[in-house]
Each structure stands twice: as C-alpha cells, then as structure tokens.
Amino acid sequence: MTIPRTASRNLLLRQKGPLQRFLRTLSTTHPPRPNPKRVDMPRPSSYSLTRRSFSAAKSASHNNWSPPKAGEELYTTFIDKGGNEHKIAVSKGDNLLDVAQANDIDIEGACQRSCACSTCHVIVDGEEMYEKMTEPDDSENDMLDLAFGLTKTSRLGCQVIIDEALDGIRVKLPSMTRNAQASDFSSQK
Ligand code: FES
Fold this sequence. Notes:
Its cofactor is [2Fe-2S] cluster. Strand 2 (74-79) and strand 3 form a beta hairpin.
C-alpha cells in the first residue's frame, strides 16, 4: 500500500485515535517518498541542507523584548537541553523566540522570524496545552517538516504568540537543530 504523496509526516503525527495508529504503522513501513512536484520556499543559494551538519550553536539575540508590567504577567517555562527549567514572566503578544533570546535561553532564530528555517523549533510539553494553540499555518508546517527531532507537539518558537490561554506553557528545546545562520537569510531582506 502506498501513502499519498501529499500526506506530510507532520500531518500523520497529528491524527488521533485508531486512524493515528493506522497511519503511524503505515508511515513506519512505507516512509513517504520525496514529492518531485513540491515547491519549497525560496532560499538563498548559499543555504543547502544537504551540505550542512547539525548544530547546537546559539545565534545572537536581536529583539526588543521587555518584561511585562506588574499585574499583567503570564508565565512560560523553557526546559533547556540539559533539562534545566527557566520560568519567565511574559506579556500577552510576546512570541516564544523573542522571550527565549532575551533571557539567554539557548535557541537559534536564523531567519529572524520569517518562518523560513526550523532553528527556533520547540516542543510543547503536554498535548493538552498544544491543543489550546492556534493551528500552525502551511508555512510553519513546511518548516516543521525540516526540523530535527519533530514530534506531534512541535512548533516554531517565533510563530507561537502568548495569550491568556497559553499562560503556564512549558516548552522543551530539542537537543539539536539543523544548522543555519542569520547570514544565510540576509539576502532575502
Ligand atoms: S526563526 Fe526561522 S522560523 Fe523561526
């Protein structure tokens, strides 16, 4: 049996119940084949995943995040690669990447929130919290497909906007991300 080429691994991971088990079995025994008709987002010529290795390197922080006003705090916790937890007070409207970088959490953000890399990959701790989030759009799903260590609660940190429903969210940082640097995207600006 052949899995339709249009079925992304990300979609398979997010199915529920008996369908989830069925699709997971299929995805194991019949891994998806590359789709020759797929049109990927444009990348600079210097950006080639096939020539890059994995890295846990940190890029420079570059945002104007500021702590929340008294009485308006929401909370998020980052669990770093060593298992250490960092609980941070944030404001409604903050995105996880900005918060992390401003608080010295070791996370990249090579494309600077353009949804054109997967270096800000985070893993939401708990499906219940994941279900409260707005669905990732097609661009985010495309980039998540390239993320190292993709899970069914994976998101791109720069695309997760904190609101009251996400108060208390906990996210883990994957052990590795695909190597990319801000300079790889500078020609897009
Ligand atoms: S920083 Fe590149 S997708 Fe988030």
